[in-house]
Every structure is written in C-alpha cells, then in structure tokens.
Amino acid sequence: MASNKMNIAVIPGDGIGKEVVPEGVRVLNAAATKYGLDFNFDEFHFSSCDYYKQHGQMMPDNWKDQIGGHDAIFFGAVGWPDTVPDHVSLWGSLLQFRREFDQYVSLRPAKLMPGVTSPLAGRGPGDIDMMIVRENTEGEYSSIGGRMFPGTDREIVMQETVMSRVGVDRILRYAFDLARKRGGKLTSATKSNGISITMPYWDERVLEMQKTYPDVTVDKYHIDILAAMFVLHPDRFDVVVGSNLFGDILSDLGPACTGTIGIAPSGNINPERKFPSLFEPVHGSAPDIAGKGIANPIGQIWSGAMMLEHLGHPEAAQGIMTAIESTLTDPALRTGDLGGTADTITCGKAIAAAV
Amino acid sequence: MASNKMNIAVIPGDGIGKEVVPEGVRVLNAAATKYGLDFNFDEFHFSSCDYYKQHGQMMPDNWKDQIGGHDAIFFGAVGWPDTVPDHVSLWGSLLQFRREFDQYVSLRPAKLMPGVTSPLAGRGPGDIDMMIVRENTEGEYSSIGGRMFPGTDREIVMQETVMSRVGVDRILRYAFDLARKRGGKLTSATKSNGISITMPYWDERVLEMQKTYPDVTVDKYHIDILAAMFVLHPDRFDVVVGSNLFGDILSDLGPACTGTIGIAPSGNINPERKFPSLFEPVHGSAPDIAGKGIANPIGQIWSGAMMLEHLGHPEAAQGIMTAIESTLTDPALRTGDLGGTADTITCGKAIAAAV
Ligand SMILES: CC(C)[C@H](C(=O)O)[C@@H](O)C(=O)O
Ligand SMILES: CC(C)[C@H](C(=O)O)[C@@H](O)C(=O)O
To answer: Out of B199, B318, B333, B334, which could bridge B195 as a Cys pair, Cβ 3.0 to 4.6 Å?
Structure first.
C-alpha cells in the first residue's frame, strides 16, 4: 500500500526553476487537500549556480545524507552559464543525482494536449501520444576520456561511450514492460549502421529481450531517420526506447512536435525504489526569460503528477492532469508562450483551483 | 579554369540506388549536351551487398586504384540488411570512401521546394533554406572500442568518440567560410552540458575560430533543443555545423521539415581536391520499395547538380535545379511519395527534358 505521508526534497535550482517550483508545490498541496495526502516539503538551495558561487562546488559533501532518505526529489532546473560552465554545473548536480541514486529510467511523455497548437500541420489533441524511455546512467554521458597534446596541432580529445549488459537490459526490460501495458508496440532508436560497436550491441540486446516479450511488436529505426519520422509520422509511435543521448534528443523533439517543450515533464526513476526518484520539467533554467515571472509552470506541475503516480497515487495524479487540461483550454489562464495572457503565478493558481 | 571533360566513377550500390542512379546519369547527360560538357562515366559494381555475396567483402582490394583517379564519384545507396549487416556493408564501403578519400565535409541542403508540402504548418517554398555542414571523418563514427566479458552479466562495450584539432578546425573553417558567403550566420550544434569532454572541446574551437570571422554571427544550441527548434522555428537557421553524428541527425531532420528526405542530396567533399569527392542522395537503399520502379530520383539528380557545382560548373548545376523545380510543380511528373503519379523513369526523363 502506498503511504499517504510523503517526504519530498524540493530543489528549485537556477533561473526559472525558482519560479515554477513554487507553482508545482502549490498544486501538489491542492491535491493533498483533495485526496487526503500529507506532504512534508524540505527545500534545499544547493544544486544551483548561486550555491556554487558561495561554496565553489554545486553541492555540500554530504548531499546524499541530506536528501537520500526522502521519498522523492521535486526538482526545478539547473544551469547558469554566465556564472558556471554547463558541464560543471550539470555534472556537479543533476547528472550526479541520476547516477548516484541509480535513476536509470528517464520517462518522458510527449502528448498533444488540448489548447496547444502543434507545429505539425493537421495534428490535433490525441494525435500524438508517446512515451519516451531514456537510459539515464551510462552510454554517451560518460566520465571516461581526456585530452592529449593540448594547445598543439596534434591536440586530440576522446570520450568513451560505455554500455553494459546490466545497463542496457534493465532499461529495455522497463520499456518492454511499459509497451506491454500500453499499445504492445515498442520502437528502438539505434545507429548501428554508423556507430559500429556500441549500437550493434544495443540491437543485439533488443533482439534477445524480444524473445521474452513475444506479445510486443518491435520496430528499429536509426536515429537520423527516426528524428525525421517524428516529424513526418508522429502517430506511428507509442513507446520509444533509446540510449542516454538518443533519448535526450527524442524527448525534446517529441514535445516540440506536440507544440512546446514548456509543458513537458519527466521522471528520473529508480524503479526498485532503493533511492529517491527525481521529477523535473524537460525545459532548463531559461536564462533569457528568468526573473520575469512569465515562465510556463505546467512542465513542473505535470512532473508533480508523475511523482504522485510513482509514489502510488494514480488518482491524485489523474486529478492534476485533468486540471492541467481544463486550464490549458482557457487563453486567460495560459502563459504567453502558448499565446495566452497569464503569468506564471496566475496559471499555477488556476490549476491548483481546478484540482 | 574548370575542365569540361570529366571522368566520373558511377556506383549504383544496392536497392533503389540501382534505379535512381540511371536517372541521375540521364540528367547529367542532358546537361552535358546543353552546356557543352563532356562526361566519361565508368560504372562499378562493387560497394554493394551483391558484390559481398560473391566475394565475401564489399570491395576489391584495389578499389582505391580503380576509382581514386576519377574527378568525382556518383553514388547511389548501399545496404541490404537481409544479406549483410548494415555496419559491415557501410564500414566496408561508403564510410571507407569518406575516410580514405578524406571527404571531411558532408554538405547537405534542406530547402523547401515548390510542389512539396512541408509537414510543418504554415511553411511554404522559400521559408526553409538551410545548409547543414557535417564533419565526415571522425567524431562518434570511430573504429576504436571493443567488448569485454562477452556473454556474461559483466559484459561491457565501449566505443571512443575521437575529435582532433585538425579535424574540428577544418570543418569549422569550411562552415564559417560558407556562412560568410551566405547570410553571415552560423549555428553550432553541441551537447557540452551532458557530453563532458568532446563537446566542450568542440565549443572551445568554435570560440577560437570565431575570432577570425568577426563578420559571422554564431549561435550555439545543444542538439536536443536544436532538434526541437528545427521543428518550431526552422526559419531561424541558415548554415548549421555539427559533428559526424549530430550532422547526420540534423541532415535527416532538416529535409523531413522540408517535406521529404526523398529529394535531399548530399556531397561528401574533399575541398582540397586531393581525392575525388562523392555525391549521393541522403536516402538509403530502401529495401521496402526497391525493385518497384517507384523511387523518387530527385535526391540523386540534385546530387548530380551538387557535383557539377563542385567541379566548377555552376551554370549547369543551376540549369538542373531549375529543371527540378519546374518538374516538381507538375503532379503528373512527381513520384508517388510526393502525391504524384509518375514512376522513377518518367520523373527522370521529365527533368532531363526540362534541362
Ligand atoms: C548509412 C549511414 C552509415 C550513413 C551515415 O550515418 O553517415 C547515412 O545515414 C548518411 O547520412 O549518409
Ligand atoms: C541539462 C542536460 C545535461 C540534460 C541532459 O542532457 O540530460 C537535459 O537536456 C535533460 O534532458 O535533462
């Protein structure tokens, strides 16, 4: 049985993260009242470039002790390139969480919602509805590599892509299970014609796993043509599984096809619940609009719904989704990026009220 | 002065390559008559899976001697996965040409043409017109890596991404030069927030190169959001430069946004002309429609125009482009993938006649 008492670590991070996280919390509190849940929110100010400026590192040494015991992490966005280079801020925080808390599944829906206009001609609500399953701990995001002959004409840099049987099989198993629960169809993103070692291995494991899921139909596309197909035939896809990098690309491209990445949510999930999972919008800290109060809070709020689902409260999650959908149909309650007139707080309050 | 006599190696390859290459040759011959050019075409049947079936390898040992002296290579498509795994056929042919002939620039236009419907709402001819410049010899397509503990739970595969100063700088220089000739604007594809060694290096070299091109404006996008922007705001891009993998993805996605990858051409160019350059459509051998005579030959024909441009005959190249554009506006002369009724040969003959 899922517990009604939940201990959540809240990390706003940088930029618009600080503006949208409070709206996410507002909506979660509304859901708590409605569905009889009991949240305890602990806010943390590390994992931000402000913290880095003061301490010379993104997080305190004991960050794992501070948040490792929570039921989940509700995360905004991190990154402020004017202060800290992105690869320093990200590898010092978000990518640490994913790896150290073994959040090996990144789950990212791309669904065309009412009130949102797709950039694709002739596609309406419901026409696009896919779930992107991204490997989240290994692959192209590796920490092995280096530079030789620096500063000379012979300079060379190398970085390993690393795939392990454990790592590949567990993400495939998750994706196959999800496909079985949804339409019975799985698309695998590969590039085995060009990337000649890791990607044929990926294909090999897909073929192997397929044997234990005879009820799931599997398509395999090279990433280049798959990206093209997202634009030309997005309706053909349901569950799509990819490596860390391919999943990253597809989970921005998919939401773009559904009109905006401003509302796209994501879960960084440790399915075994040995560690807390982390829920965050797909968008980043958006330095260009930060501080103006105009950011769209829906990606954050939807991430809250995914968190509730993960913690065993599907009814409350569905309640938030229904509130998001009804709010989206009213231009006075949508933010400017969706052609509406609302600011961040107005939109967040409207969704909380609808819950 | 460009010579009017040109010695071309013709390699049809597999699948629809064998159907579209003759149409490309037909149109080149028409251009020769019109513009007073003199082609000698030598056809080669290696670099195909048929050849592999007979000889156990994709090409004869002396392939470099056989085609290295030609002025250019006019290439169809290679790959027939039922017979030969893709990474074997591709690494045994096309990827060899690119590397051994040091064709370090892959140049790929994405242009919305008359008569072609974009999948993007509200975009008409001329609204999308970009040039993708892809690094074509190193990066993610590497031959370093391997597998350990095969067949066990500890199994692990690794593959290096390799970037050299020589390799990165020369592709950037080409892209900056091209941007200077076109709109003065360059977009660099990166992923330095997640891929922490090679991609920050790529950014570093872009910054350095920028110093010598003060007249070119440079934008930098991470590949995930860049893919999204291609769909949301394709009009913002002119020249886009990326690594081998990122260029590969963008040069399928870009043409998809312009309606089809069936007409997209590409050049694999050795700018110093120490080796022959290779011109091929972006599409592959398309086993699903091969043998039916319905493939769209325009990607191949447009590649012929790029070849003429490269060999110093811009007027003849422009003649072919004008013929393509006028043919595209007539449904009776377009192939079925573009909603027309023509077969491959009818479309090819029409373009040849228009030249
Ligand atoms: C066939 C494949 C190896 C090739 C590539 O990835 O380079 C193709 O997709 C291309 O773009 O020319
Ligand atoms: C910020 C960046 C490192 C991150 C990623 O690439 O994983 C982001 O794009 C995401 O998708 O969560």
So the answer is: B199
pLDDT in tens, A41-60: 999 999 999 999 999 999 99
* H or E stretch at B158: strand B156-164
CATH: 2.60.40.10, 3.40.718.10, 1.20.1250.20, 3.40.1280.10. Which one for A1-127+261-355? 3.40.718.10
Cα→Cα distances B67→B14, B21, B61, B78, B230, Å: 18, 17, 12, 17, 37
For the full predicted model, state whether its pTM sits above 0.90.
Answer: yes
b/e code A153-171 from CB counts within 10 Å (16+ = b): eebbbbbbbbbbbebbbbb
- Give the mutation candidate from A14, A80, A82, A87 for the B interface (greatest B CB count, under 10 A): A87
Contact A198 B252 (CB under 8 A): no
Pocket test for ligand 1, best of B16, B248, B283, B300 (most atoms within 8 A of CB): B248
The pLDDT tens digits of the residues spanning A217-268 come to 999 999 999 999 999 999 999 999 999 999 999 999 999 999 999 999 999 9
Which chain A residue shows the shortest CA-CA distance from B254?
A: A228
Vertex A42: Cα angle to A38 and A47 (nearest 5): 140
Chain-chain contact of B120 with A231 (C-beta, under 8 angstroms): yes
Fold held by B1-111+263-355:
Isopropylmalate Dehydrogenase (3.40.718)
Region label for A74, one of left (φ > 0), alpha (ψ between -120 and 50) or beta (otherwise)? beta
What stretch(es) of chain A map to CATH 3.40.718.10?
A: 1-127+261-355, 129-257
Residue B185 backbone class (left: φ over 0; alpha: ψ -120 to 50; beta: rest): beta
